[in-house]
Amino acid sequence: MMSFSKRIDGRSLTDLRPMEAKVGVIDKADGSAYFKIGNTAAYAAVYGPRQMLPRFMQDPRKGVLRCSYSMMPFSGMGERVRPGQNRRAKEISMVTEKAILPVVDIEKFPNSVVDVFIELPQTDAGSRCAGITAAALALADAGIPMKDMISSVACGKIDDKLLVDLRYEEEAFEGEVCDIPFAFMHNSGKMTLLQGDGAVDAESLLNLFDMAKEAAEKIYEVQKNALLDKYKVEGDLDVEQ
Fold first, then answer.
1. SS3 of 152, please?
2. What pTM does this model have?
3. Which of 150, 137, 146, 123 is nearest to 38 (CA)?
4. Which CATH number is 78's domain given?
5. From CA 136, how far away is CA 46, in angstroms rounded?
6. pLDDT digits (tens, 9 = 90+) for 188-237
7. For residue 4, is it within any domain?
């Protein structure tokens, strides 16, 4: 079996793929965003807060955040994705909601729901992380009160190498592969997502945590600039955050 020595696209082990982000990309949504990293692209649209129906699902103490993740049928690098909410899409929808909920001030909207729809037209690994990053941006664009910004990235281990932002060919490598999606709050530095696919030792996991946190800060800068590009007023000074 061939051992992993270097990345196919020439990146260093800690480099992210090229990134692009925009907000306000869907006119009829209350807030929306586009985030692309490498060949993985995610659109997120926010609708609400609006009255939760049916009424028996309403909570008079707080609102509800609902996330729906979906990949288009021919978006993946592998087999064709079946349209609709399959088991994987439902799991990622739940993971996305739990990753974002800690920063959303949903208590301000009793008896209401905020819906976030995430659609991926093309993917090359890191799809749930791109979806979370786009969803957080779309919520900010919608003006939903947020305590912090969420940025998400996957890191992993292939044989004895630790990598940031795996692509499909790396995830599918025939050696020992571990892929771990992370999500972090920017201001507090707290982690809101940690999942693992594959085995990894404790020392490597701690190193991957540090690598992911540093990478998430780079993603945050792209998110921040996307918001500033939409809302800056001509003549304003640059905002340092």
1. strand
2. 0.89
3. 123
4. 3.30.230.70
5. 10
6. 999 999 988 778 889 999 999 999 999 999 999 999 999 999 877 544 54
7. no
